[in-house]
Specification:
alpha+beta; 122 residues; two-stranded antiparallel ribbon; 4 strands
């Protein structure tokens, strides 16, 4: 079952169709939370930076049908896992801790950078 479905069929002039597409293009360019004025009211959407697109053209029975479809998830995927309060405190404590005796701080920094590079590669 879909969370929401809105469908509208009506006859438009070329200028009205252009205005509708211009409003949609502006909303896509702006991104984030946008509002589109439709004949039945205002449609509020959250548009992410990346979305999927599908274009379809059908010619038959004396008509041309052009469909342009955009899809995106309703939730924004998290790029990094959430940090707990305990993990944040542990990370802060590790930054404040002095280097172990007999080891230079340069070596500690390199091992941290190596770990970061390895985790970015995965």
């Amino acid at each position: 079952m879909k969370d929401l479905k809105f469908e509208q069929k009506r006859t438009l002039t070329r200028f009205e169709a252009a205005d509708q597409l211009t409003a949609l293009a502006a909303a896509l360019r702006e991104g984030g939370d946008v509002e589109l004025e439709l004949s039945l009211g205002t449609l509020s959407l959250r548009i992410p930076d990346d979305l999927r697109s599908e274009t379809e053209v059908e010619i038959g029975n004396g008509e041309i049908e052009l469909e342009i479809e955009f899809k995106w998830p309703t939730t924004t995927p998290r790029t990094t896992p959430p940090r707990t309060v305990a993990a944040t405190k542990k990370a802060r404590a590790a930054k404040k801790a002095p280097a172990e005796p007999g080891r230079s701080s340069t070596r500690t920094s390199r091992s941290k950078n190596t770990k970061r590079s390895a985790s970015k590669a995965n």
